[in-house]
Amino acid sequence: MDLPIQDLAMSLQRAERAQAPLQPFSEVYPALSSAQAYAIQQAWLSLKQAEGGSIVGRKIGLTSKAMQQQLGVDQPDYGFLLNTMVVQPGSTIALAELIQPRIEPEIAFWLAEDLRGPGITVEHVLRATRGVSASFELVDSRIANWRIKLVDTIADNASSARVIASEQIVALDGLDLSNIHVTLKCNGATVEEGVGSAVLGHPAAAVAWLANKLAEFEVSLLAGQLILPGAMCAAVSVASGDTFQASFSQLGDITLSFS
Questions:
Q1: Across the chain, what does the average pLDDT equal?
Q2: Domains of the chain, earliest start first
Q3: Fewest CB within 10 angstroms: 151, 204, 236, 248, which?
Q4: What is the pLDDT of residue 226?
Q5: What is the pTM of this model?
């Protein structure tokens, strides 16, 4: 039977608004392909754009072995970042707005030039990047209990919910992004640690992967956009009253609280 792409996109929209997660699409439609899942994601993006949302960047997900093992998948995926998803560092987020959020520290890329695949390499990415900064991504599955396969998280905008990026942008001169270390603390206690090389060997390799993947759809990464290349460690569940601090070597600290 034909896949009801628009209906599935609308179900994600309703699930997000009502904080009422869905049965996995992969269970309802066992033959669902990655291409169909990206079509659902695109339809959901169109719904959000019709309500005034605008793209400020892109995210790559599942780029580290830790995240792939945590969710039982074997390849990256990607999603969109909208102006409505941006939260300022140091803010407090109400958990009532979300379903089952988890927090990830990432190295945010700020583009100064467009990147259009195919053929984009790490070197192309570094030349096109204005600088990098400390960031968090808040992921949140609209699928019940994070019971997801790759196609579920693709359709669900790569499980993205909020982006929190420091605007203290650090130039790339002298930085070895693969060796940047992060310590993630919750209420003062270390809960995870990671390094840039966990992200496809080098965070810029994830950005290159995305530029080349998007070229299949004749889409480019654009100057001025923010790109999140993926988590440096496993994502951590959050609870009301938690305050998280991520400390990045050479990039500084970023904090976020929950109520």
A1: 96
A2: 5-258 (3.90.850.10)
A3: 236
A4: 98
A5: 0.96
